[in-house]
Amino acid sequence: MMDWFFRGDYAATPINVPVMVLGLLVAFVAGHAIAWVYMLTHSGLSYSRSFVGSLMVLPVLVAGVMMVLSNNLVTAFGMMAVFAIVRFRNILRDTLDTCYILASLVVGMAAGTQRFPVAVMVCLLAAAIMLYLWLTAFGSRHRYDVIVNLHWDRPAAELGDLRLLLERHSRRSHCASQRSNEGFGGTDLSYRLLLRDPSRIEELLSELRKASGVSRVTSLQAEDESEV
User: Per residue in 215-226, pLDDT tens?
Assistant: First the structure.
């Protein structure tokens, strides 16, 4: 069985199987590193765990694509045509769905060009990575419990009173958005909070609604925000 695997490349220019395996593993490790850096450095209101997973899968798939193409211009144009047809017929709203489509294309092209070791390795490694993402929920993070949006009618210089109120209920707070409301006056604020006690969120919202200069208070749970 192993002899078939190492001698199973019947293309015009057979590939070096140990080098192929090493290349795919390097791509996996590098993609993992890029995904971790993205998770640690991302800031903003929109965060997608699916996108993080795609950052880890895509390097492996692209490495497989380059191995299949292997300076073959005809194969390259064929892959472009197939992928264009798939994108034309389907609207993929999830970046991970694109990875599944690309994985299927790579495996099919590798088998069609008689690069059977590439087809087997890309299939096994891609399936293993997808299962790993599913089992470990890779890409999830819990930096904040809730996002609080409110309107501040008082001068910006007096925001210290609002920060003191938030600090009584949170271990960490971050002002993610601050926008002046020219039509009605005041400032629209959005805070990300890591609460001292998540079960007391209603108490925090009640105090905010009663605070002087605060209006239009709304909240959004962190798990809802993480998949926007």
Answer: 889 888 765 444
pTM: 0.55
Helix (H) or strand (E) holding 165: helix 159-169
Q: Which residue has the tokens 């819990």?
A: 142
Task: Give dist(CA 149, CA 89) in Å, integer.
Answer: 40
The C-alpha atoms of residue 67 and residue 61 are separated, in whole angstroms, by 10
The CATH code for residues 146-225 is 3.30.70.260
Do 192 and 220 contact (CB within 8 A), yes or no?
Answer: no
Q: How many CA atoms lie within 13 A of 55 on its CB side?
A: 17
Cβ contacts of 121 within 8 Å, gap of 6 or more: 20, 21, 24, 64
Specify which of 9-23, 66-80, 151-165, 173-187 reaches the highest per-range mean pLDDT.
Answer: 151-165
Q: Could you tell me the residue ranges of all domains in the chain?
A: 2-136, 146-225
Phi, psi of 55 (to 5 degrees): -60, -25
